[in-house]
Structure formats: C-alpha cells, structure tokens
Amino acid sequence: MKLFGSKRRFGLSILQLGILGALVFILFVISDNSLRAWAHNQTTIRRLNTQIEHYRQQIETNSRKLQELRSNAQDLEKFARENFLMKRDNEDLFIIVD
C-alpha cells in the first residue's frame, strides 16, 4: 500500500521533493544564513574595506606630516602658528574669518 503515490522524478518521490523544497526554502530564505543576509554582509564588507583603505591613506599622510614636523623646526613653528594661533612676543595676531 502506497500512501503518497509512486510517481518518481529524478529518483525521488513527490514527498521527498516536497521535503527537499521546504528545506531549501528554509535554508536560503528564512534562516540567518539566507541569501538576503549574505548580500547585506557582502555590502557591509565592501563598505568597511573602503573605510579601511581611506584610513590607511590618512595614516600615511599624517605620518609623512609628522616626520616633516619632527625633522624641520621651521615647519613645526609654522604648523603651531597656523593651527594653534601661536605668536611671537613682538607680534600682533589678526584673525580673519570669511
């Protein structure tokens, strides 16, 4: 006595194909490892890699500037005067805001 029919496709019964279809649906659509979650994670990875490259370039630029400031006293004085509004005792400082 056969309860679910005897039609077979690819060596599987209709019941087995239904169960296989349900498992595939659960694994790739509903679960935490779904295709949507995978695509979201790939987008996040690409965005983070872009940020990593940006910060690496920024670190490289800042390292070069730091090396220049450490090696040249005139550059250090210029940097301090421009960024921290420092001045010599005999100078007047005018701040122009546009």
Topology:
Blueprint: E1 8-9, E2 12-13, H1 14-30, H2 35-71, H3 73-84
Antiparallel strand pairs: 1-2
Helix pairs in contact: 2-3
Written account of the structure:
A hairpin with a 2-residue loop joins strand 1 and strand 2 (12-13). This protein has helices at 14-30, 35-71, 73-84, and strands at residues 8-9, 12-13. The mean pLDDT is 84. The protein has 98 residues and is mostly helical. Helix 2 (35-71) packs across helix 3. The protein is rod-shaped. The chain has two domains: 1-31, no CATH class; 33-85. A two-stranded antiparallel ribbon has the order 1-2. 67% of the residues lie in helices and 4% in strands. The N and C termini lie far apart (92 Å).
Features:
about 65% helix; 3 helices; single chain; about 100 residues
Terminal-residue CA separation: 92 Å
User: Roughly what is the average pLDDT, rounded to an integer?
Assistant: 84
Oligomer: single chain
* Rough outline: rod-shaped
Main pleated sheet? 2 strands, antiparallel
Q: Please mark out the parts with pLDDT under 50 across 5 or more consecutive residues, or reply none.
A: none
Rg over CA atoms = 33 Å
The sequence of SSEs as H and E is: EEHHH
The helix tally amounts to 3
Percentage of helical residues?
55-70%
**What is the number of E strands?**
2
Class by SSE composition: mainly alpha
Structurally, the number of domains stands at: 2
Range of strand content: under 5%
Biggest sheet: strands side by side, in what order? Answer: 1-2
